[in-house]
Amino acid sequence: MIFTVAIDGPAAAGKGTISRAVAGRFGLRHLDTGLLYRAVGVKGGDPAQAARQLTPEDLDRDDLRTLEAGQAASRVAAIPEVRAALVDFQRRFARSEGGAVLDGRDIGTVICPEAEVKLYVTASAQVRAHRRWLEVGGDKARVLAEVQDRDARDMGRADAPLRAAAEAVVIDTSELGIDEAVAAACAVVAGRLAKGP
Ligand code: C5P
Description:
Blueprint lengths: L3 E5 L6 H12 L2 E4 L1 H10 L3 H6 L14 H10 L3 H15 L5 E5 L2 H5 L5 E6 L2 H12 L3 H17 L12 E4 L5 H17 L3
Parallel strand pairs: 1-3, 1-4, 2-3, 4-5
Bound molecules: cytidine-5'-monophosphate (C5P).
Cytidine-5'-monophosphate (C5P) binds next to helix 2, helix 4 and helix 8.
């Protein structure tokens, strides 16, 4: 079965949690595409070359989840050569036998416009910053500024800007608990699966 669930949205909206839950529930493979950009961002040197030479070990580093890695990722993610170098791997993963969930910024719009399910998971910047702050701690105003900075860069770039695909189902998690958000996403996937792959 070829079946792709594309989950896009801004930083800290809940995409990761929802993606892992959907993948587990329906037995699909999961790719957190943000990790690819984070790994390129922290690798140093020429970003385009780093993207072309990315290895599985690069994705295993334990410093990929920091605020700094997120900022570095969104800077290199605006470079067209970096994005181009990562397209094939993501497309192959998306259309591999058995089905896949990919979460990122451009999965439903650029990487896999033919995805069977497209979700756009979002929440207010304040809510997202609060969640991120619970994870990383530190100065709350700085965490909000970091979220807003990344939103502006991810939505404002020329190449594959963050936006909801026309046919995406929007899930706003500002006032949803994790269980409710996961249930909403699973209902959309189950509905589409019921029609056949
Ligand atoms: O999702 P995550 O916060 O890990 O993504 C880090 C950064 O990588 C994002 O802010 C964005 O700039 C970039 N990214 C992207 N396209 C994707 C996934 C992530 O541009 N598909």
